[in-house]
């Protein structure tokens, strides 16, 4: 599958944006978010942020579209026909919700299978909904309260060895 973000990820690395992030947490003030102008995804127009997955002490970087508003989260990856191995979308509920809550995602109008990774406020993975079925109206839910959700191409979480308890870190874009 050809990735449309390959050059964008290289650009992020060249500008130093992929050099890491911080664990999203309730204690992290929004003012601490990256002050660098974010690169935008050519299809969604959303900011692209580096997301670090920590698996058994090793890290892996993902270039993720950042969905922070209710409208951006509602659209998600609907109608998209491809998603590269190191691409995804991070849904940040802290922008509108003060407390973590159980989240449920469906695949309405979503063409490709996705891994839906539910992340607690401290960045720890709560649950992974692996290979969610395209177009399904069945809700894929977290087992506990979460503040963030990361979507990856279906099967990618298993390829990386990602599981509950691993860490997801990122820095929300400024603005």
UniProtKB/TrEMBL annotation:
Alphabetized InterPro entries for the sequence: DUF192, Saro_0823-like_sf
Gene3D superfamilies: Protein of unknown function DUF192
Keyword set, alphabetical order: Signal
Pfam families xref list: DUF192
PROSITE patterns per record: PROKAR_LIPOPROTEIN
Keyword Signal attributed: yes
Superkingdom in the source lineage: Bacteria
Signal peptide positions (record): 1-18
Protein name: DUF192 domain-containing protein
Species of provenance: Croceicoccus pelagius
């Amino acid at each position: 599958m050809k990735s449309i973000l390959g050059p964008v990820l290289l650009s992020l690395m060249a500008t130093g944006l992929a050099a890491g992030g911080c664990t999203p947490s309730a204690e992290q003030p929004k003012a601490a978010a990256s002050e660098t102008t974010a690169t935008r995804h050519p299809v969604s127009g959303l900011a692209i942020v580096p997301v670090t997955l920590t698996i058994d002490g090793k890290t892996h970087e993902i270039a993720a579209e950042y969905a922070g508003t209710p409208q951006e989260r509602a659209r998600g990856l609907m109608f998209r026909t491809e998603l590269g191995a190191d691409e995804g979308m991070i849904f940040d509920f802290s922008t509108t919700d003060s407390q973590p809550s159980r989240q449920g995602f469906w695949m309405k109008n979503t063409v490709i299978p996705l891994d839906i990774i539910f992340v607690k406020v401290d960045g720890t993975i709560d649950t992974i909904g692996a290979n969610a079925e395209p177009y399904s109206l069945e809700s894929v839910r977290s087992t506990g309260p979460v503040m963030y959700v990361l979507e990856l191409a279906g099967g990618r979480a298993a390829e990386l060895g990602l599981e509950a308890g691993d860490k997801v870190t990122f820095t929300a874009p400024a603005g």
